[in-house]
Amino acid sequence: MKKLVTSSSILLIAIAVITQGVVIYISNTSAADSIRATKVSLKLNELSEENINIESKILTFASYQAVASRAAVLGFESTRDFVSVYDPVTVALSR
Amino acid sequence: MRQANSTRAGFVIFGIFILYAVLCARLFYWQVIQAQSLSELGRAQSLEALEIPSLRGQILAADNFPLAANTISYLVYTNPKLSRDKKDYSERLGKVLDVDPASLSAKLTQNLFWIKLAQNLAPLKKEEIAKLNLPGIGFEQQYSRFYPEASMAAHLIGFVGRDDQGHAHGYFGVEGEYNSQLSGRNGAKYGVRDALGNEILGDVREISKIDGRTIRLTLDRTVQYSVDTKLAEGVEKYGADGGSVIVLDSESGAVLAMASYPTFNPQKYYEADPSTYKNPVLSSLYEPGSTFKVLVMASAIDLGRVKPDTRCTICAGPIQMGEYKIKTWNDKYNPGINMNDVIVHSDNTGMVYVGQKIGVKNMVSYLKRFGLGEPTGIDLQGEATGVVRDPESWHLIDLATTSFGQGVSLTPIQLVAAVNSLANDGVRLTPYVVSQIVTPDGKTIDIKHEGGSRTVSAVAAKTVTSMMVNAVEFGEAKWTKIKGYKIAGKTGTAQIPVAGHYDPNQTVASFVGFFPPSRPKITMFVLLNHPRTSIYGSETAAPIFFNIARDLIKYYNLPPE
């Protein structure tokens, strides 16, 4: 009887120790995952912010206002008149 | 002794009863009367709410380039109690923010823990401030509206300001008309706290935000750019107070460009005069003058009362109508002039003849068919309409002046929609600016537009079109026409009513037309307010029209006819 009580107690203590170990392991893992998730979330916010800022810059540089003022600085001018071909142009004369 | 005991027991029971009664009353007070406020107080203590702003939808041009987008800006704040040397603090900050240090110093003396220093700061500016390492400085990220093309089509796009509760709200133009579609719905995040105010990790409740929808316009950025620049140049060159241009796709009524001058930058709308916010194309009524003649002539031809070769029998000189004398614009008269030449030379007396042939009742009926007296139905905010009076209240002089476009008022969009019906075989279409709405998950909703209503027969429309072609070829604006290209057009020089009479020196100069005349692709209207170098439409509005038309012919590769 005494032996049964002793072995049961040892078994219960062992189960308690193992369970505690599992809890500690899971807590540590999930805590690490949580830190990683927070880092990913922060990075995501940072990249979205950067993305919007870059998009704004691209739109500013690609706007007609910016292109036109840069073209004027570089000396480009749009042609005032245009050429119209009224009669069909003869092609492949040698044939 | 026994009686004394029972009295004592009675007191005890009564005391217990009173205690229970007080307890019940107190419980009733807390649980019923104060229940709601206490429950709100509890929620406020335990929940921390954080608003998640929705992203406002973009406004795209027809080529998908955003005319209104979102950018990140920053609000900079500080805790004044942490700034010890306020003078040095405000001087360093003032230099970066480009603000008077004295005003910053005044803010820093306030007995507060949080004060706003500036907002709408660009990321670079934020970095500059962060590098100063000033104590108490903090930043709050915000979304702000960004207009990459600055003032391009500002009247059509509108702007985003703040409503009474400080929330972003669209005003004027597309931003105003489609505010509910563009704004979406803000979300919220609730963090739960314990009795000591510590955050309970992992217990976060969230209401998801719904981003705004994107609006795709019919506006062609290339056409709009040409219109913007040519209009600004024209207003300056002719010394006008302002002007407007509308370009429509003749077949669909889609607005390809819409510009007015003076204009404003929607991003800095608060720096502009608020009177410039309104879109004059939709909200300014004016007397159209001679551009209106084509509509009256089309009505007479549709009724079968005149033909292009019908001769005027009252055009030998000025026409006396009671106390009024009706003259031609140059006081030169052409006895027996035919209807084609009435349009070519913009002859007022010839139009009085046409008006008389139409009659008051028919005139009112055709004015309504051309859309006068009712909004065109364009999908923009702030459309005004003139009034078309009942035939009973018309006098002979009203019929006469209306026939050459005076004494009748309409908006530029009403006129261009009416003239576009001539380009479109007599069918008046509703002008529109929005072609599609795109949901945040990428679903595209096409906006359907109604078929239109008939103004005049296709034959009458074609007949007037050929008269308008002749007006460009042989009329007053022939000096500025495009060589080799036929355009159907008509000049307009309208006097402005001032204090009961017309001011002869102040006019609204305009030109309306469409091209190519055989199968119109573009319908365009140019208007100048009070041009000073010349009062005539043929010398001011017409050159602007043809300058823009040159660009459009090149852009759309329209062959000569």
List keywords for this structure.
heterodimer; A: 95 residues; B: alpha+beta; seven-stranded mixed β-sheet; 21 strands
Please give the number of β-strands of chain A: 0
| Quaternary state of the chains | heterodimer
Secondary-structure-based class of chain A equals: mainly alpha
Helical content of chain A stands at over 70%
Low-confidence stretches of chain B: none
Return the average pLDDT of chain B rounded to an integer.
Answer: 90
* DSSP helical segment count of chain A: 2
Number of helical regions of chain B: 18
Largest sheet of chain A: none
What gross morphology of chain B would you assign? elongated
- What's the gyration radius of chain A in Å? 39 Å
How many beta-strand elements of chain B? 21
Estimate what percentage of residues of chain B fall within beta strands.
15-25%
Commentary on this structure:
The complex is a heterodimer of chains A (95) and B (561). Chain A has 95 residues and is mainly α. Chain A is 76% helix and 0% strand. The longest helix of chain A is centred in the middle third of the chain and has 61 residues, at 2-62. With 561 residues, chain B is α+β, with helices and mostly antiparallel strands. Chain B is 35% helix and 24% strand. Chain B is built from 18 helices and 21 strands. Chain B has helices at 2-33, 35-46, 86-97, 101-108, 123-131, 154-157, 173-177, 179-183, 221-237, 280-283, 293-303, 339-344, 348-358, 360-369, 396-403, 412-423, 458-474, 541-556, and strands spanning 47-52, 59-60, 66-78, 115-121, 138-146, 159-162, 168-171, 187-193, 199-207, 214-217, 242-249, 255-261, 319-321, 324-326, 427-428, 434-438, 444-446, 453-454, 488-498, 501-515, 522-529. In chain B, strands 2, 3, 4, 5, 10, 16 and 17 form a 7-stranded mixed β-sheet that branches. Chain B is elongated, with a radius of gyration of 34 Å. The termini of chain B are far apart. Chain A binds chain B through residues 49, 52-53, 55-56, 59-60, 62-65, 68, 78-82, 84, 86, and chain B through 65-66, 69-72, 123, 141, 146, 148-150, 152, 221-222, 225, 229, 484, 550-551, 553-554, 559-560.
